[in-house]
């Protein structure tokens, strides 16, 4: 299977999906990442246009794009502190750059959110304040920030909580549940 943006997508038997070779991602400071397509098994022969568009959009995000996530990362941090307390977490000062407290995984997933008929680019990683659940960030159509929070595998909060009213909610505070 061919992608105009990523080249040949090979089927990976271990992950049971198509994946790209490594490609530099500007939004991650040009580190080399692999794109995974869990819904494209070996029986699918044509790369969907919607996936092509989402990948292309995501690769246009500039190196400073992650700054857009900072307010939501702070919400996630403060929510976690409120839930489990500061004694088990190294505090992050208000003057610190919260982006220095996360580490992104170089494996990026692209998939449908079937309930919404949108394509999401989603990636995970670790964060200093929530070691057990980590971090997940998703972009609808590869360009609109859609979700920031703990890694639960869902590409949107509407999907995660089965609530359509959460479609445009980027971070769900525990008090909202």
Structural commentary:
It is a single chain. 18% of the residues lie in helices and 31% in strands. It is of the alpha+beta class and 177 residues long. Strands 3, 4, 5, 6, 7, 8, 9 and 10 form an eight-stranded mixed sheet that branches. A two-stranded antiparallel sheet has the order 1-2. The mean pLDDT is 94.
In short:
Helix content is 18%, strand content 31%.
Which SSEs are present, and which pair or pack?
Blueprint: E1 2-3, E2 7-8, E3 10-12, E4 17-19, E5 23-25, E6 31-37, H1 49-59, H2 70-84, E7 102-113, E8 118-127, E9 135-140, E10 144-149, H3 157-161
Parallel strand pairs: 6-7
Antiparallel strand pairs: 1-2, 3-4, 4-6, 5-6, 7-8, 8-9, 9-10
Notable characteristics:
177 residues; alpha+beta; 2 domains; 8-stranded mixed sheet; two-stranded antiparallel sheet; 3 helices; 18% helix; globular
How can the largest sheet be summarized? 8 strands, mixed
Order of helices and strands: EEEEEEHHEEEEH
Count of distinct structural domains = 2
Radius of gyration: 17 Å
Alpha-beta content class: alpha+beta
List how many beta strands DSSP finds: 10
Helical content (DSSP H or I, runs of 4+): 10-25%
């Amino acid at each position: 299977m061919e992608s105009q943006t990523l080249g040949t997508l090979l089927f990976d038997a271990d992950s049971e999906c198509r994946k790209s070779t490594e490609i530099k991602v500007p939004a991650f400071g040009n580190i080399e990442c692999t794109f995974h397509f869990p819904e494209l098994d070996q029986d699918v022969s044509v790369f969907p246009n919607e996936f092509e568009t989402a990948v292309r959009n995501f690769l246009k995000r500039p190196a400073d794009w992650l700054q857009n996530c900072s307010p939501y990362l702070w919400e996630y941090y403060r929510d976690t502190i409120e839930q489990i307390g500061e004694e088990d977490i190294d505090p992050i000062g208000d003057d610190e750059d919260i982006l220095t407290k996360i580490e992104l995984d170089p494996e990026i997933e692209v998939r449908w959110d079937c309930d919404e008929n949108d394509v999401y680019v989603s990636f995970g990683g670790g964060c200093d304040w929530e070691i057990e659940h980590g971090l997940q960030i998703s972009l609808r159509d590869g360009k609109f920030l859609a979700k920031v929070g703990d890694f639960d595998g869902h590409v949107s909060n509407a999907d995660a909580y089965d609530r359509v009213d959460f479609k445009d909610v980027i971070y769900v505070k525990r008090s909202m549940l």
